[in-house]
Design brief:
heterodimer; A: mainly beta; B: 7-stranded mixed β-sheet; 4-stranded antiparallel β-sheet; 11 strands
Chain lengths: ~110, ~110
């Protein structure tokens, strides 16, 4: 079992729709959870971090964490073409290392 | 300010060259990281420095040699690289290693080994 798994993509949504990105992790001792956005040819950009169970909202982005289910998700409301990118889920495991999922490619079409 | 800077942006080197990648942050972070990223893959951790001491080496070949001269600077010295080492090299920093602190990446150095 991979340490961090993301829903397989690519994911395509129309402009204005909600994009839903999902991630599961295997280490129950994981402490912190991150979503990075990476445009083609660029470096990962931190868009959300979440440490406690529940929802965390920042503008059009909502991160959701359920430690019992070992599940973290990212919702993007009112998706825009500029949101088209690869989204990386990252989990800081109990031994301190940041482990990434394989990434989900999101395309928002006008 | 959450800026991590890296130089150079691009680097082309032969297999016999010696070069260095540089990374700088002024956020007061005490943990700094080197990652390697190949196309269509997630970043892979190479090294972690915590309070200027090497704390993690992910079994990286000795042709990669990290150095942390002070709490703001991180270097990666390259020697006798192979073409398969061509990749995007990312520096990152966080307040401390581990815990619940955000980790920020620099823009990366795109390395091509001929």
């Amino acid at each position: 079992q991979k340490e961090v798994e993301q829903n397989s993509g690519p994911l395509s949504v129309p402009e204005g729709a909600i994009a839903s990105l999902n991630c599961t992790y295997s280490d129950r001792g994981s402490q912190s959870f991150f979503w990075y956005r990476q445009y083609s040819g660029k470096s990962p950009e931190l868009i959300m971090s979440i440490y406690s169970n529940g929802d965390k909202e920042d503008g059009r982005f909502t991160a959701q964490l359920n430690k019992a289910s070992q599940y973290v998700s990212l919702l993007i409301r009112d998706s825009q073409p500029s949101d088209s990118a690869t989204y990386l889920c990252a989990v800081r495991t109990s031994y301190g290392k940041l482990t990434f999922g394989q990434g989900t490619i999101l395309t928002v079409h006008p | 300010d959450t800026e991590v800077t890296q130089t150079p942006k691009h680097l082309v080197m032969g297999m016999t060259n010696k070069k260095s990648l540089k990374c700088e942050q002024h956020m007061g972070h005490r943990a700094m990281y080197w990652y390697k990223q190949k196309a269509k893959k997630p970043p892979e951790l190479m090294f972690v420095y915590s309070y200027e001491k090497l704390s993690i080496n992910e079994s990286v070949p000795s042709r990669f040699s990290p150095e942390c001269p002070n709490s703001s600077l991180l270097n990666l010295h390259l020697h006798a690289l192979q073409p398969e080492d061509s990749a995007l090299y990312l520096c990152a920093s966080s307040q401390v290693a581990g815990g619940i602190f955000d980790q920020y990446f620099g823009p990366g150095t795109r390395l091509l080994v001929l």
